[in-house]
Specification:
The complex is a heterodimer of chains A (137) and B (110). With 137 residues, chain A is mostly helical. Chain A has 6 helices and no strands. The mean pLDDT of chain A is 85. With 110 residues, chain B is mainly α. The longest helix of chain B has 28 residues. The two termini of chain B are 28 Å apart. The mean pLDDT of chain B is 91. Classes of the chains: A mainly alpha (137), B mainly alpha (110).
Chain lengths: 137, 110
């Protein structure tokens, strides 16, 4: 059951890249949304999105995220890989403090510790039970 | 149904939809003969998720909607078990439970 030590390097890199891309995507998206006009008209919003180059960056992040994520899924169960992406909640929170000067609440620090503990639990389980990557216990 | 309840329902449905989209993406690495089709279906479903979530934000504040999206970790785990037949060890469930609590604490305070 404890397969944590046998995670292949390429999977570790893939998961790290997924978290990095997700973090970048969220920060860029947040910036883009904040620049949108305050309107309820879907057409006006669409035009604003099309005119703002930051959404090209959003699309590029999404494309890169998809390509990398498909590679990750080639080497691990979905229920193994997906929980790791929760670490982007931690990185976004930490970067918001470091880059944007936002304040961090004590409960957020508790949340970060709990998320990391949860990911550690998942990392200790068998990474692949399906397909060619599956290995006997 | 109140607008808030409708918004919450939309977010919950969007997390389920994400679970299905992710399941199809994983299917693409298990059924290589139809890899492209599975990817296309998966991406199409994930686009539906974005539309549903955006619609929910017309009824809910982001600070309410975002914590609910952490349910997607539970949805993905359930659907991986039911649709893909992945083995979910008790320790993995414990990890998903901790992640659900932890991410909610982080975003609820943001």
């Amino acid at each position: 059951m404890t397969a944590g030590a046998r995670i292949p390097v390429r999977l570790v890199i893939g998961l790290a890249v997924a978290i990095a891309l997700d973090t970048g995507l969220q920060l860029v998206w947040k910036t883009g949304i904040a620049e949108l006009p305050d309107t309820t008209s879907p057409w006006e919003l669409l035009v604003a999105v099309a005119r703002n180059p930051i959404f090209i960056l959003v699309a590029l992040f999404m494309g890169a995220q998809l390509v990398n994520w498909l590679k990750v899924l080639d080497h691990a169960d979905l229920s193994y890989a997906k929980p790791f992406t929760s670490l982007s909640y931690v990185t976004v929170c930490v970067l918001s403090v470091l880059l944007l000067g936002e304040r961090i609440a004590p409960l957020q620090i508790v949340g970060i510790v709990v998320v990391v503990a949860g990911v550690w639990c998942v990392s200790q389980t068998r990474r692949a039970s399906l397909g060619a990557e599956a290995e006997p216990e | 149904m109140s607008p808030t309840a409708f918004g919450v329902l939309l977010v919950v449905v969007s997390t389920m939809v994400e679970g299905f989209g992710q399941t199809f993406l994983k299917k693409s690495s298990l059924d290589l003969d139809r890899r492209r089709q599975w990817i296309l279906v998966g991406v199409a479903i994930l686009i539906v998720e974005i539309v549903l979530y955006s619609a929910a934000l017309r009824f809910l504040a982001v600070s309410t909607a975002f914590p609910i999206t952490s349910l997607s970790f539970v949805m993905v785990t359930l659907l991986s078990r039911w649709l893909l037949g992945e083995e979910i060890a008790p320790l993995r469930w414990a990890g998903v439970g901790l992640i659900l609590v932890g991410t909610s604490l982080i975003v609820a305070q943001a």
